[in-house]
Amino acid sequence: MTILHLLSQNQLTGAEVYASQLIDTQMAAGHKVFQVSNGFFYPTKAEKIELKVETKSFFEFRNSVKQLRELIQKHGIQVVHAHSRAASKLAHKATCKTKTGYVSTVHGRQHLSFSKRWKNIYGSHQIAVCENIKAQLTDEFGYTENHIKVIRNGINTDLFFPKRVNSAKSKTETLKIAIIGRATGPKKTRTENTIKYFTDIFSKQNMSCEIHLIGAIDQDIDSNLHSKNLYFHPPQNLNQGIYAQFDLIVGAGRVCMESLMSGVPTIAFGEAKYLGLVKKENITEFMQSNFGDIEKASWGTPEINLSQLNADLESYYKLNIQEIMDLAKVTKSHFALKTVSDQVQKVYEASYFEKNHKHWIPVLMYHKIPDAVLDSPHKIFVTKDNFEKHLQFYKNHGFQTVTFSELKQFKNGTRPFSEFPKKPLVLTFDDGYWDNLNNADPLLKKYNFKAQIFLLANSDISHNQWDEANVDKADKIVSGADRKLWLKSNFEIGSHGFSHKRITQMTKDAALAELAESRRALEKETNQEICVYAYTYGDTNAACASLAEAAGYDFAVNTDTGGLKMFDDPYQIFRVNIFPDETKFSLWKKTSTWYRASYFRKRGK
Q1: Do 503 and 535 touch, CB atoms closer than 8 A?
Q2: Distance CA 505, CA 536 (A)
Q3: Mean pLDDT split into 10-residue runs, the chain, 605 residues
Q4: How far apart are alpha carbons 250 and 259 in whole angstroms?
Q5: Which of the 8 DSSP states describes residue 490?
């Protein structure tokens, strides 16, 4: 994709570090990236363009909107990614009435105002770096929950993950403590209180410590707190080697992520709250506030609890090497830059797709296409003659079919939207019955339509054994070597698991294996990419949707639940059941762009 990162930097901040690391990862993946800002304070490989993104002048702002819009048009920008309030305000104006997707990362609590509640300036999709920011955007601003994705800050594991870690110091050794971050504004009080309490604790217990302030200057701190054991260091680009010089880190946000990944014990103390020593059992809770920087509600000056700090120091002295390394591994799993970049890319694609196609895309679900009516309690069939009538209806009403691999090409920008159908339609079939090949496929070819077939990865299954208790006669499924016939058909293959089992009834590990291994098995068998999964029985939940994403799919489909649009939740896509007795009117209704919203209003799902 062609991506433009928009910042409003007048000095180095965590937002620029976040954007810069994303930029280099994106460029390494083959994307073309531009960086636009007031100034540049962190190295990247992107083409840099200076622009007055943050300005108080109405006329300068209007001129910046014009210049940014010209840049978008000149370079064919597909997605703008804003990283500050000023950048979001500018991007909102510049991308209006364009086909360019627009995403904001919200790094902190936002000032509440009527204008923000009335008009969302943060883009069609927002990235929140922690759960508390998402809560504010949904609860206080009323933004759409499905369009806000919590994606952590990305950390370059090459710079931080250690080969080995040191054990905690003993009480007889000098403890080197680093308090990292600015010591101005709200953080000034936080920093001064931390110095005071550490000094008091070590003095009373007759222990020795050094306190190092990284990112602060001596004028920032009350002179009464200056001592021979207090050291000042200028702001610097941190890495594992710098963190490893210290025994204990105090910080919040990115500092906590980097220090923990570097294998250095860390106390989370941010602008909003003192949380304490980070441990394996509390890291998930601490991440929700970005390690103390963001509370759900507005806050005053964060206070440090002396007894809790004492308890945290005692816990520090009890840490062993294995606990420290385990915590580094857990941190790596949450904040690894490649994982974060992949998640951000999916948000880009959703925003870009919806900017170019705003309507719900009907995804219809078929199963069997028999020659005659079946005596079946499930009514999951359409006779061959009726299926042809359906195809005639779709053709007469101007529909063009798309498959999920084609949808993927459009959303990731590798195929231009000038080729996207005006009236897209997705036809899906589950299980892989012989009558799909013998009856449906010739008709699909006759009307120049394509469809998605969801096959079981177990090629030995030759009939619908999961229905045996409910039917007198089993229906044959294409199996064995005959499955190669699908590759000559107008069907594109997706995964339906191995043997038609409910993944909601599996353990997390077993469900992930079912999803991932069935995809790999089908890719090996067909020598094709498998980008979509269909939940058996339409039985899924949010946890299973997350597993489908982790298993490497781009999409996953339900039956009669899911988002109001495809990219509200691409891993729980709503499908419309098609029954034996459909009429022209029912087909018109079920393929109308308003149908999904109407269904939700009536049934609440």
Answers
A1: yes
A2: 11
A3: 96 90 95 97 95 94 97 97 96 95 94 80 95 94 92 90 88 95 81 91 94 90 90 86 94 93 95 93 96 80 85 95 95 93 96 96 97 86 97 98 98 96 98 97 98 97 80 83 97 96 95 97 97 95 95 95 92 96 97 95 89
A4: 9
A5: S
Helix (H, G, I), strand (E, B) or coil at 246: coil
Distance between CA 251 and CA 266 in Å, rounded? 7
Tokens of 546: 């997350």
Q: Which residues of 223-236 are buried (b: 16+ CB within 10 A; e: fewer)?
A: eeeeeebbebeeee
- What lies within 8 Å, CB to CB, of 488 at 6+ separation is none
* DSSP state at residue 252: -
Q: Which residues contact 227 (CB under 8 A, 6 or more apart)?
A: 199
Strands annotated E in 361-474: 363-366, 400-401, 424-431, 451-455
What's the one-letter identity of residue 347? V
Closest CA to 582 of 315, 372, 323, 380: 380
Set out the domains of the chain in order of their start, with CATH numbers: 2-153 (3.40.50.2000), 159-335 (3.40.50.2000), 358-603 (3.20.20.370)
What's the per-residue H, E or C state across 367-386?
CECCCCCCCCCCCCECCHHH
Which structure tokens are listed for 98?
């364009």
Q: How far apart are CA 563 and CA 597, in angstroms?
A: 9
Q: How many CB atoms lie within 10 A of CB 580?
A: 15
Helix axes 337-356, 14-28, angle to 10 degrees: 80
Run of H or E residues at 79: strand 79-82
3-state secondary structure of 250: strand
Query: If you search the block for the tokens 């009907």, which residue do you land on?
Result: 362
With contact defined as beta carbons under 8 Å apart, do 27 and 41 qualify? no
Within 8 A by CB and 6+ apart from 149, the residues are 125, 126, 127, 128, 343, 347
Specify the pairing of strand 32-37 against strand 2-6: parallel
CA Rg, the chain, in Å?
Answer: 28
Concatenating the DSSP letter of every residue in 287-305 gives HTTTTTT--SS---S----
**For residues 434 and 462, what is the distance between their CA atoms, to the nearest angstrom?**
10
Which token pair is 87?
């950048």
Q: Are 540 and 576 in contact (CB under 8 A)?
A: no
DSSP SS3 for 282: coil
Q: Of 333, 322, 329, give the one whose Cα is nearest residue 166.
A: 322
